[in-house]
Amino acid sequence: AEAAAAPGGGGSSPAGGGSVPVLFCFSVFARPSSVPHGAGYELLIQKFLSLYGDQIDMHRKFVVQLFAEEWSQYIDLPKGFLVSERCKVRLVPLQIQMTTLGNLTPSSTVFFCCDMQERFRPAIKYFGDIISVSQRLLQGARLLGIPVIVTEQYPKGLGSTVQEIDLAGAKLVLPKTKFSMVLPEVEAALAEIPGVRSVVLFGVETHVCIQQTALELIGRGLEVHIVADATSSRSMMDRMFALERLARTGIIVTTSEAVLLQLVADKEHPKFKEIQNLIKASAPESGLLSKV
């Protein structure tokens, strides 16, 4: 979203801290809520996403506008605007479609490892291969200092993460029953990581937990990279159609090698040789990528 500079609005002002009533308008909707006194542009955007995230197309540009009493109309939100009094704001989509560039940098990336559990071993196609690729991704994350969030679907019944996958250093390992990984604890963990922009997502199953996680993440304004050679399902048809659907929403379907080399970006990177050795050591030819 983008905002241009202009003067502010009007209303009654609370003395000091506390919360301030704000009317959030988007399309034909208007929902009253509140934000902390002194909230700025970023908090307003977060509130818009929490109220209208399922309706906002994150691949468009937006302008945030403030209703100005002196003009009796909306104006572009002033640069450096802070909420100090009751006001009305709206989110206006521009007609220009944004291109998802898919740039990855270690400082703004987090890895999500989804439900790589023992009970799935006999059922998931190419499960041994995605274990191998997941190992490579997690080793790369440790080398590059990238936070890792891991979930396990109902581990009491489905078992823990397979022993081959080393979870040492993971920021969070969390049991769940919801299909999506986007749980309150995961959102809190993301909030603790400054500047997160991109999620690299892998695990099982592509058409269930991976798909639902990806859609929730882009609804919250994050860019999602699904690692095709580390993601599978019981059915290759389910997997194929899920990846096609997700790609059409602007989610980036990529490979483990592409992700790791994009993160180092330069052969002069201090960790390049170690990442290169990871790639050389494990590159299964499973047939998964022929079914993307």
Automatic annotation (TrEMBL):
<comment type="similarity">
    <text>Belongs to the isochorismatase family.</text>
</comment>
<protein>
    <recommendedName>
        <fullName>Isochorismatase domain-containing protein 1</fullName>
    </recommendedName>
</protein>
<dbReference type="InterPro" id="IPR036380">
    <property type="entry name" value="Isochorismatase-like_sf"/>
</dbReference>
<dbReference type="InterPro" id="IPR050993">
    <property type="entry name" value="Isochorismatase_domain"/>
</dbReference>
<dbReference type="InterPro" id="IPR000868">
    <property type="entry name" value="Isochorismatase-like_dom"/>
</dbReference>
<dbReference type="Pfam" id="PF00857">
    <property type="entry name" value="Isochorismatase"/>
</dbReference>
<feature type="domain" description="Isochorismatase-like">
    <location>
        <begin position="109"/>
        <end position="257"/>
    </location>
</feature>
